Amino acid sequence: MPSDAETPAPVPVLDVRDLRVGYRGRDGVVPALHGVSLQVHEGERVAVVGESGSGKSTTAAAVLSLLPGSGRVTGGTIAFRGEDVTHADEKRLRRLRGREVGLVPQDPMSNLNPSMRVGPQIAETLVAHGLATRSEAKERAIALMGEAGIPDAGRRARAYPHEFSGGLRQRVLIAISLACEPQLLVADEPTSALDVTVQRTILDHLEELRAARGTSMLLVTHDLGLAAERADRVVVMSQGRVVETGPALQILQDPQEDYTRRLVAAAPSVATARERAAGRTAGAAPTTGRPDAPTNEPVLVVDDLVKTFSVRGHRGQVLTAVDHVSFSVAPGTTTAVVGESGSGKTTVARIALGLETPSSGQVRVDGTVVETARGSRRRAIRRAMQPVFQDPYASLNPTFSIERVVDEPLRVFGVGDRASRRRRVAELLDQVALPTSVASRHPGELSGGQRQRVAIARALALSPRLVICDEAVSALDVLVQDQILTLLSDLQRDLGLSYLFITHDLAVVRLVAHEVQVMREGRVVESGEVGRVFEHPESDYTRALLDAIPGADLLT
């Protein structure tokens, strides 16, 4: 009988060793992964974290042989339950994908067929792997939708993806990924586009389903707080390499590498959870060095604002998107409007910018009513108030050079001549910490963080008093997000800017805002100074938003 010392170690479900991946370009193969090694054992949850470009999604794609374009594995091995599948043929890969390894991708809309009903898309997976006949698969698809938490599954199975919310579409992808009861689940940023409360609900349900089946999981995310909360072990990646690995709580509380410490420090969810765990009192000094709130007349006043929309296909039925909302923004301060999708926060921002007309109530900028302003007063409002939107690529003309993007407001308002505008562009790029050399480049040649800096530079071109940021950092990874938030804080201190900050992320609010308005279903359910709202929330909904911040349970 063999001794314990001779008992062989269990074979990992996934064993990646010295993995190297490259992409073929004009000048040869450009390496993307440099010797990545990781393991996932039976029933284990392993999270891979890192900023954009760290190689985490490339690692996940390589596991399933789904590398895009010219991507190729150039070295190392990928073993599934001891079998080398690094260069498996298509027949083996068809069985591996879906049946043995399930995938929950990031964007549900681009991963579901928009012209096909949801139920048949789930059933198709079962039929393709020979696990059910078409009639059996139809019934099983409805059952899987119910297990994934989709209400009224029998009826919703006949709906199309566009008829579902983002959270429900993500549940459909979870149902597809678990349909064949795979032994390993690869979840690549499965909730990054969702509100924090929806994110928590989805991940809780995914964990219940995973635990019930004993499925192992490889979770890819840029959110270290989320990784630590949802994984047993964390693998930290940077520039195509593994820089640190260890138990999740240890990585969160005692990171050993400088890069990991930067990730922890930059994660708003972790910073907010730490402050709550430490029992930070209301009115404590903010973490980003915000100025004390001045007492001057408000830059922006939102007064009893109401906005209704007619419901298409339901004559006479009205949806109230904004329901008697009032607040103000003092000079040199930040007021955040926070809430889930559908809360009405973006509609408030669009009305403030003059892009929507209120049904009643009014918005005033420097005392002038936005809706009724005409001629020179309208132009003055537009100069005083500028937007920064969520997607810096969609909001910048891809055919323009960066110089033309940034000086466009100057040209529209007839400010200066060509030489003075060029000097102003150089000043603006310097203000947002971009080299003047980017002026001749195009948006597609810049990273997401650089593009957002360009969007901010454009917003500052006319020296506005108020900048409206609509989810301006939600599409960025934590390190870039931290850089942009620091930049906005520095600009506020140096230029006296006021911000209306629209976001679904209360963790970000804690770092940047003086005042917060919490919205739900068109109404403000709580408002006040940020420290007070965070430490002593009065609304159950605010408490739910705070409790949904990833990592909060680990540090409280």
What is the structure about, briefly put?
Helix content is 38%, strand content 24%. The protein contains 22 helices and 20 strands.
Give short descriptive properties of this protein.
556 residues, alpha/beta, six-stranded mixed β-sheet, 20 strands
Name the strands of the widest sheet in spatial order.
Answer: 6-7-8-3-9-10
Secondary structure: number of strands: 20
Overall radius of gyration = 25 Å
**What percentage of amino acids are in beta strands?**
15-25%
Counting helices, strands and paired strands, the structural category is alpha/beta
Shape: globular
Low-confidence stretches: 280-294
Assembly state (oligomeric): single chain
The N- and C-terminal alpha carbons lie at a distance of 48 Å
Number of helices: 22
**How helical, in percent, are the residues?**
25-40%
Would you tell me the overall average pLDDT? 87
Major sheet details = 6 strands, mixed
